[in-house]
Design a protein that fits this description.
By secondary structure, this protein is mainly beta.
């Protein structure tokens, strides 16, 4: 169910739509930044990447504005994914879904964007 725009907590999403995690130092991470609104105390924030079958391909780590434990509040938050899963395996080339989720007092707010992994 889509919430009306005024109920959305995640705004101004900026995302690297294409990235190449091949270790050459150029475009090796998918960087994600967004503005969190109306969340006045720190709440769980996650940026996860899924393949088109819905399997978790990897999780981004907070690089700015959120705690290492994935807590955030009002402001700009930045995350980065290195293209690896929990076991350290690189994601195969393809299209992935980037899901930004915030567990707020009024329930979970999510945004989903497409990302392409290419080599």
């Amino acid at each position: 169910s889509l919430r009306p725009l005024e109920d959305q907590l995640v705004h101004n999403v900026i995302l690297d739509r294409v990235f190449t995690p091949n270790g050459d130092g150029i475009n090796d991470q998918a960087r994600v930044s967004f503005t969190l609104l109306k969340v006045l105390i720190e709440r769980p924030v996650a940026v996860n990447f899924y393949d088109l079958q819905g399997r978790l391909a990897g999780s981004a780590r907070a690089t700015s504005g959120a705690t290492a434990a994935g807590q955030g509040k009002v402001g700009t938050l930045e995350f980065a994914w290195d293209g690896r899963d929990a076991k350290g395996q690189l994601a195969p080339p393809g299209i992935y879904l980037c899901r930004i989720s915030v567990d707020a007092d009024r329930g979970k707010s999510e945004q989903v964007q497409l990302v392409h992994v290419v080599y």
